[in-house]
Design brief:
This protein has 120 residues and is an alpha+beta fold. Helices cover 27% and strands 30% of the residues. The chain has helices at 34-38, 56-69, 83-95, and strands at 2-6, 15-20, 23-29, 44-48, 51-52, 72-78, 107-110.
């Protein structure tokens, strides 16, 4: 579980997403951005604030709305680990062009080790 909290002087979100076969995938993480410290290209965003997401437009709207209204957002993210999963993700990212999403507000990650553990 990743929790992003808006902070006036924090790094920009810097996140690009696309959808492929009913999955929202991270397609870009800008260097030095908040997303680059917590997410990786190819990560699958499963839900945002408890709402399952399968479309990048829905995911984008949920991210923006939560950051604007609550100043925070949480997401469940799955990172491909097996060679088969990595290959599928790589193919998904090159098969279809998706719009890039990058939020201009700056956010800070607040996480606890018990609930937030990404594997490389």
């Amino acid at each position: 579980l990743a929790k992003l909290v808006w902070q006036p002087n924090g790094p920009k979100l810097g996140l690009g997403i696309k959808h492929f076969q009913n999955r929202v995938l991270v397609s870009r993480c800008d260097p030095g951005s908040l997303s680059s410290t917590q997410l990786a290209v190819g990560d699958h965003i499963i839900d945002i604030d408890g709402v399952p997401v399968t479309d990048k437009d829905v995911a984008r709207d949920l991210l923006i709305k939560a950051l604007q209204e609550k100043k925070e957002v949480s997401a469940v993210v799955e990172r491909p680990e097996t060679m088969e999963a990595k290959h599928w993700t790589q193919q998904a990212l090159v098969t279809q062009d998706g719009d890039q999403f990058s939020h201009r507000e700056r956010v800070e990650v607040v996480s606890s080790k018990a609930s937030f553990d990404f594997k490389s």
